[in-house]
């Protein structure tokens, strides 16, 4: 137990993904990079754009700003990613376009609303984005620092546990206890919600 627990912490500490400064892995973890599975796939943006247009008709810049706000500053889609999707949505007749001066105003069509309804269960990304609704970047930064300090304290204790058999047993009990507490942290709340 002890050796496995220590190795897990060491691997976590040494891995590239152990970065709390930019949201538990930062941009690469969320949107893919360095061979990681992408949490954010290209098709997800079309759902987000259509959902944004359900609120009201918007021009491209407004859509980009809305998306940036939904991502809480972690990601700002470029015009080069948004406008081709808007063109594709227009080609599929999911949005209609009107001109207002030199700006194009995009409005979701009935076909676009039907597409959203028919594919609501497939929009896993929207479900993940709901986790960000109450997200506060400063709180997350503080939490990341607290977690890093806690992990460092555990690593320090684990090194000391290697020097003595009794300390090793004590450390194993400690790891088991915090693991169980973490796994059961919200179970009582979940049962009360039912």
UniProtKB/TrEMBL annotation:
Domain Transcription regulator PadR N-terminal: from-to ranges: 49-118
Matches recorded under InterPro entries: Tscrpt_reg_PadR_N, WH-like_DNA-bd_sf, WH_DNA-bd_sf
Cited SUPFAM superfamilies: Winged helix' DNA-binding domain (SSF46785)
Name of one Pfam family that matches: PadR
Domain of life per record: Bacteria
Protein name per the record: PadR family transcriptional regulator
Taxonomic source organism: Staphylococcus condimenti
């Amino acid at each position: 137990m002890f050796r496995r627990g220590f190795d897990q912490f060491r691997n976590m500490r040494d891995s590239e993904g152990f970065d709390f400064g930019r949201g538990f892995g930062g941009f690469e973890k969320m949107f893919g990079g360095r061979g990681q599975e992408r949490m954010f796939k290209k098709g997800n943006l079309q759902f987000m754009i259509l959902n944004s247009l359900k609120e009201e008709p918007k021009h491209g810049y407004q859509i980009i700003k809305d998306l940036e706000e939904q991502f809480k500053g972690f990601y700002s889609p470029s015009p080069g990613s948004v406008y081709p999707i808007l063109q594709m949505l227009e080609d599929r007749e999911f949005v209609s376009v009107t001109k207002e001066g030199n700006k194009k105003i995009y409005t979701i069509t009935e076909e676009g609303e039907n597409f959203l309804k028919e594919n609501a269960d497939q929009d896993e990304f929207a479900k993940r984005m709901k986790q960000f609704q109450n997200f506060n970047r400063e709180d997350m930064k503080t939490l990341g620092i607290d977690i890093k300090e806690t992990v460092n304290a555990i690593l320090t204790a684990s090194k000391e546990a290697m020097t003595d058999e009794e300390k090793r047993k004590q450390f194993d009990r400690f790891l088991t206890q915090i693991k169980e507490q973490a796994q059961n942290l919200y179970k009582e709340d979940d049962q009360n919600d039912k």
